[in-house]
Amino acid sequence: MSIPDRGGRSRGGARPKPVFVDPTGRRERRLQVLAVASGAVLLLVSVFFTLSLVAVPALPHFPGLGAEVRRAVRPALPRRPARARLLAERERRDLMKQIAKDEHGRLSRRRPVAPAPPAGQSPVITAAFYAGWQESGIHSLRANADHLTHLFPVWLRLDPEGQGLDTQDWDPALTPRNMEVLQICREHHIAIHPVLSNAHEGVFDSTRAHLLLSDPARQERLARAAHDWVAGHGFRGLNVDLENLAPGDPERVPAFLSRLRQSFAADSLTLSFDLEAEGRTPPPGAVARECDFVVLMGYDQHGRYDPPGPLCGARWYEAALDRALQAIPPARLVCGIGAYGYDWTGGRPPAEPLTCQQAMSTAADERPDERPEDVVDFDPNALNATFEYHDDDNHPHEVWVLDAISAANERTLALARGVRSTALWALGSEDPVLWSFVDRAHPDARPDSARLAATHYPFDVDFSGDGELLGVLSYPTDGRRTLEQDPATGLFTDESIHRYASPFILSREGYQEKAIALTFDDGPAWPWTGEILDELARDSVEATFFVVGRNAERHPDLVHRIWEEGHEIGNHTFTHPNLAAVSPRRAELELNATQRVIEAEIGRSTVLFRPPYNADAEPASAEEVTPILRAAQLGYVTVGESLDPEDWQLTAEDSAASKEERSG
Fold it and tell me: Where is region (Disordered) located (predicted)?
């Protein structure tokens, strides 16, 4: 045996040939090629797997849902359930991180509260009335909450006996959005002063008011009930609106307000009164002595039940303001600004109420071949916008509107007299540009002609077609107007509209005569989804279930059963948020995470989507259009609804009564 020395040579013989020596070099080249190829394959696999975790699920695109695309969903990884579940888990984790990130950002972006006024100085009030029947009111509140110090929601009415509270307009069981109103006001530090009125079915009832005002005992009972209700709900005060009073009753109003004030004193609750600009009104000075502030209603110069005419002529408003200031200090007077329109047919009442956007859309639709400046006139005496048209039956119409220019003139007249506080009637019907000078952070802001020149209407939505399959035909466009301003008074004396602002226009498809499509949202849930499936199977009826991702994770057996029994499955997001109120990234993750869960459970994807909270086939605002836009960008078809049974409001008692009815 030879032992190699330190130099590598053997001691005792010739050096043997190494076993793995390849003089040609072919083996080395093969190994290099194999290593490179293996690395490339590994890299491609890694990249593909990483992208599959974060990519948007691929969906088929098609114009609508017909027979040829029924159940047209592609197989999604049917032979690899473990990988599908991994994707679903990854999407869910990403979604939870995004939710936390969005919440942190929302809190950091919150606008600071306006500082309190110095001691001894009355606060400047920037308020708005909120009417639940004005559908776009909640959207305006959400968009403009940072501008407000107070909200006056129309929630309380006198009962028929004139001694108790009718709280039906407040009841969250009947109007769930009232809870959202509370949340918005809490988040933006807005004081809530519910309105107590004698209105009934759209008319101010003089009989109810007379029963109250003519009887001190009734007044005492109502004062106690109002205190208990306002204090019990944690509200900060009460706004009283008594109109259309019988002869002799206006003089009795201060006594009633005095009883309310005494009842409210122990809890330091605020009291205010809405004073009509003219007519049979309570004595302003006596009202002001009993209230913390008075709202002068500078609108309805010609009301719904009057002949057509200006809604707030400049000279009319100026005279009303001067009369009120003779008895009420400027610091305790609030300038009530109207923001709406009326449409009279044939020169006779009643007029049809319009939002500012509806009024301008009417002008554009009814006289489409004419220039806007030739249609809408700015009355030189009233300084209000107005126009006329004939409908399809050739009936003449006369429309008057209080837009941002009329509001600017009211604001200018009030500031010139030291009245800094403002209250808008009503949220959702206004020309949005007025918020440029109605702002709690800038209580002395004056109207600026440059900012008033552009118009936009973000709340209402127009439609084309019929059905519940929704798409976007056109996007909003801004309008344009020019103004003339008197340099001496600051009043705007002329307004010329050169281009109408236009809203979203949505397409509606899928309508079939004498046919309905059954859909179920928010599940799957035990035991209800199973019971629904039993009923559908009994009658051989197929339906569509829009599932919430986290519920589908909890009940995979129900997801399988829905699919296996021939029903459709749609996407209803993962955590059921309002997609219009979350970031685009979170909206994408909400849909992706739910899509992944569906894929993991049934091996199929879905193209159907229904937005939480905004499922109506006629979205009422740009906010409600946002989920449709976001879903379309991801390849989904949005499915609305035209009939909502509101079964989510049912109680155990309702269910028992329903069963009893069927058994009878």
Answer: 1-23
